[in-house]
Design a protein that fits this description.
By secondary structure, the chain is of the alpha+beta class. About 20% of the residues lie in helices and about 25% in strands. The strands form three sheets. It has a five-stranded mixed beta sheet. A hairpin with a 2-residue loop joins β3 and β4. The chain is globular, with a radius of gyration of 15 Å. The mean pLDDT is about 95. InterPro entries: YbaK/aa-tRNA-synt-asso_dom_sf (IPR036754), YbaK/aa-tRNA-synth-assoc-dom (IPR007214). GO terms for molecular function: aminoacyl-tRNA deacylase activity. It holds the Pfam family tRNA_edit.
């Protein structure tokens, strides 16, 4: 199979390589129920040495920068209670944590979750967190620019490997809310 974008040595429909994915990601693919079939989610093997964005796009294709998205975990606090959420924005933007995210979650304060919290709560590796397989009760805030792409490059749950996912499928994930202004330049 050829990857729908980028220059990868191998591309496999995600349902055919569940053993390569972390448990929460594999479970989400296994129980996929979106309008886009699960076999349209493509796993591409990548070298973790090339995981940093600049090196990654140099090796796997410059066009990937425009189709890459970052999934970050945030912690929103109000009255001593903390809520975890994930935000998905294009790699060329940053998450408006203290504006759009804080207001949407009704928090007094919002910040990026610590690495230990992000990895411990998701069951994924830092640098590979993906919106597929997040805890079902978490809000998943998605920038509309991500949804508008034919395919989006996101983490696979591990630093090795990435997923290529149709943008519209990301808007159908559990807890997903498409939120204008989430990603800012």
């Amino acid at each position: 199979m050829d990857a729908p974008l980028g220059d990868f040595d191998s591309a496999t429909p995600a349902p055919d390589c569940l053993d390569t994915l972390t448990t929460p990601v594999a479970d989400a693919v296994r129980h996929w129920s979106g309008a886009v079939p699960a076999d349209r989610i493509v796993y591409v093997d990548t070298d973790p040495e090339w995981a940093d964005t600049a090196v990654f796009v140099e090796h796997y294709g410059a066009g990937l920068l425009r189709s890459s998205a970052n999934c970050v975990v945030v912690s929103a606090k109000r009255g001593g209670a903390a809520t975890l959420a994930a935000c998905l924005v294009l790699s060329t933007t940053r998450v408006d944590v203290n504006g759009v995210v804080r207001r949407h979650l009704g928090a007094r304060k919002a910040s990026f979750a610590s690495m230990d919290t992000a990895t411990g709560e998701t069951g994924m590796e830092y640098g590979g967190i993906t919106p597929i397989g997040l805890p079902r009760d978490w809000p998943l805030l998605v920038d509309p620019a991500v949804v508008d792409l034919p395919y989006v490059l996101v983490g696979s749950g591990r630093r090795r490997g990435k997923l290529l996912v149709p943008g519209k499928a990301l808007a159908e994930l559990p807890g997903a809310v498409v939120l204008e202004g989430l990603g800012v330049a």
